[in-house]
């Protein structure tokens, strides 16, 4: 493809705000074609906005068979994420449309969020910072105080469901804390890194002090944490989900917290995002919920945009990378 062809290529980003709210740059893409960036796109706006584009980038805007059928110019869909469930891959393939994603860009950031959540529960630093900002320590009769239970991680068992890029990095960090690590994984036991024990789901849930979810969302894993499996867990256990919201039955977890059958639930994802105001987990004091931001460090978003740009550049040169 010639440089002239590249200059004429129309590139539309349907929902660029979450990846780049203004602190990063789209200049790399702008060097490859005529770029239009929309902060957000409603479903009914998708076809009109992408009508003349050969290249469309999307994060959460759905590009299904119906949309694809109305975009005759479309030649390439770039997903600004690792998951690509927002695109009808079969419909794209039938049309000869290339679909790419951005794998592994957020591994370090998501693993960091897992332990930010875990330490929130075990050490409660924000709780004490707020109390002290309001004068609590200044009026204390002793040199120290605490009104929450604090837990040492060394020696505890950390159960990991899914040992891909993120799960493997989480395992390394857990081992560095001196924790015992068990993993539910398809990998052979003798192929696992030193310190990681292969376990069944039942064994992992029953024996772990911390359970962290890092598996793909499939029909088999949907609501794998439910009323039945929660009853296998220790009442002192901490459950962490930075994977996909539907891995967990939100109602069942809220009930387990309310009945004190689960010590804490830390999650960056929910089944419905954003959640309704009456979502049952929002009122639970031991539910620690962040708004799907584990991936959103500036460093990770910078990698996301760079890889998405490299994907487009490779497509234009005729050598596609990261195709799904």
Q: Could you describe the 3D structure shown?
A:
The chain is of the alpha/beta class and 324 residues long. Helix 6 (107-123) packs across helix 8 (165-176). The chain is globular, with a radius of gyration of 23 Å. The protein starts with a helix and ends in a 7-residue tail after the last helix. The chain has twelve helices and twelve strands. The model is unreliable at 1-6 (pLDDT under 50). Strand 10, helix 11 and strand 11 (264-267) form a beta-alpha-beta unit. The chain has helices at 3-8, 27-30, 46-50, 65-69, 89-95, 107-123, 125-133, 165-176, 201-207, 227-230, 250-258, 298-317, and strands at residues 10-13, 34-37, 55-58, 76-79, 98-100, 157-161, 180-184, 196-198, 210-213, 238-241, 264-267, 287-289. The strands form two sheets. It has a seven-stranded parallel β-sheet with strand order 8-7-6-9-10-11-12, with helices on both faces.
